[in-house]
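Progress note, sequence design subtask.
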C-alpha cells in the first residue's frame, strides 16, 4: 500500500478520504510541525507528503525521495515548493487555493480593527490593571467609513476583503498585475494606490517580482499616516524599511500576520503601540483547515491512482 507522510498532528476525520487508499504516518508532535531534519530523514519511504507550514521541497529533499509522487500543501501559498524541479522529477505539487479565502479576509479586518480602534492596546491596558475609569481621549481611533482601502492583489482573498470593506462603508481601490478584458474603474497602478489609500492591505503571493514589493522607495510614496496590513507573505515587505516608516510617522500603524524572517519578529515592532502582531493565523479556522486537508487527500488519492490532481501548481513528467 502507498505511504503518506503528514507533517502535523491532525484530526483523523480530516484524513478520512485516504482510509484504505494509503498507509498514513503522522510526523508532527503535539502542536509542533515536523521539522525539516526529521522530514529529510523520514521522507525516503513515502509516496506522498501532506505538507503543513513552509518546509522547502527542493533538490535536497527530492534526492532522498525516489518514490515521491506528490507534495500537497495544506495552504494557499506554495513558494516553498520548487515546482519546476519537482515536475522534472515526476512529482506533482498542489495547494488549497480556496479553503482559506474567507478566514483570511476575516482576519484581515480583525488586524485592521485592532490597529485603528486600538483594541489590542486596550486589551493589554486592562489586563495590566491600569484602567481606572472612562477617559474621553485616550482611546480615540479611526472611523473606517469613508476611508479608502487599497488592495495590493485582487484575487479571491482581495475580493473577499473588498466585500467586507464595503460593508464598513469604505471606498475600495486595487492593484493587480494581470489586465482584465472589462473596464476596471477602481484599478490603480501601485504608486497611485499607495498615494490614495488610507489603508493598504497586501494579498499577493511571494514571487521574485513581489519580494520587497513594499520597500523604502514605495513607503516614501505612501499616504502619510496610512495603515499597512500584511496578510500575504513576510518577504513581500522590506521589514527594516517598514520599521523606519513607522518610527518616522510616515506609516500610522500596521497589522502584521506574517514577518520577513518568521518566526523571528523584528524587536522594534514589539515595542510599538500602533502595531498589532499575529502569529501567522490568517487561515486558522477549524472549517478552513478541514477543507484544506480534505482537498489534500483528494489530490493525493488522485495521483496515487495515476490521475491528475485537482489543484496542481506544476505538470509532473513521468
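Output:
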Amino acid at each position: 500500500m502507498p505511504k503518506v507522510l503528514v507533517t502535523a498532528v491532525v484530526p483523523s476525520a480530516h484524513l478520512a478520504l485516504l482510509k484504505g487508499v494509503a498507509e498514513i504516518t503522522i510526523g508532527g508532535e503535539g502542536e509542533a510541525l515536523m521539522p525539516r531534519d526529521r522530514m529529510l530523514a523520514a521522507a525516503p519511504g513515502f509516496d506522498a507528503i501532506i505538507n503543513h507550514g513552509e518546509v522547502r521541497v527542493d533538490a535536497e529533499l527530492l534526492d532522498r525521495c525516489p518514490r515521491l509522487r506528490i507534495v500537497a500543501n495544506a495552504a494557499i501559498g506554495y513558494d516553498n515548493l520548487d515546482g519546476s524541479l519537482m515536475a522534472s522529477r515526476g512529482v506533482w505539487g498542489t495547494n488549497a487555493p480556496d479553503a482559506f479565502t474567507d478566514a483570511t479576509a476575516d482576519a484581515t479586518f480583525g488586524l485592521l480593527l485592532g490597529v485603528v480602534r486600538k483594541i489590542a492596546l486596550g486589551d493589554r491596558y486592562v489586563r495590566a490593571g491600569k484602567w481606572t475609569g472612562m477617559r474621553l481621549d485616550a482611546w480615540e481611533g479611526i472611523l473606517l467609513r469613508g476611508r479608502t482601502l487599497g488592495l495590493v492583489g485582487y484575487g479571491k482573498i482581495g475580493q473577499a476583503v473588498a466585500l467586507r470593506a464595503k460593508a464598513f462603508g469604505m471606498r475600495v481601490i486595487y492593484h493587480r498585475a494581470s489586465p482584465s478584458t472589462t473596464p476596471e474603474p477602481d484599478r490603480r497602478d501601485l504608486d497611485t494606490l499607495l498615494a490614495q489609500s488610507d489603508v493598504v492591505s497586501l494579498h499577493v503571493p511571494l514571487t521574485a517580482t513581489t519580494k520587497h514589493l513594499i520597500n523604502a522607495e514605495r513607503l516614501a510614496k505612501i499616504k502619510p499616516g496610512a495603515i499597512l496590513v500584511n496578510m500575504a507573505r513576510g518577504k513581500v515587505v522590506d521589514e527594516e524599511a517598514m520599521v523606519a516608516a513607522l518610527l518616522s510617522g510616515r506609516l500610522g500603524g500596521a497589522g502584521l500576520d506574517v514577518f520577513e524572517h518568521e518566526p523571528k519578529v523584528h524587536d522594534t515592532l514589539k515595542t510599538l503601540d500602533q502595531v498589532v502582531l499575529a502569529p501567522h493565523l490568517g487561515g486558522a479556522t477549524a472549517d478552513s483547515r478541514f477543507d484544506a486537508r480534505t482537498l489534500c487527500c483528494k489530490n493525493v488519492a488522485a495521483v496515487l491512482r495515476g490521475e491528475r490532481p485537482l489543484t496542481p501548481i506544476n505538470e509532473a513528467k513521468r
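The domain at 101-277 is CATH 3.40.50.720 (Rossmann fold). Work on this subtask will continue into the next period as scheduled.
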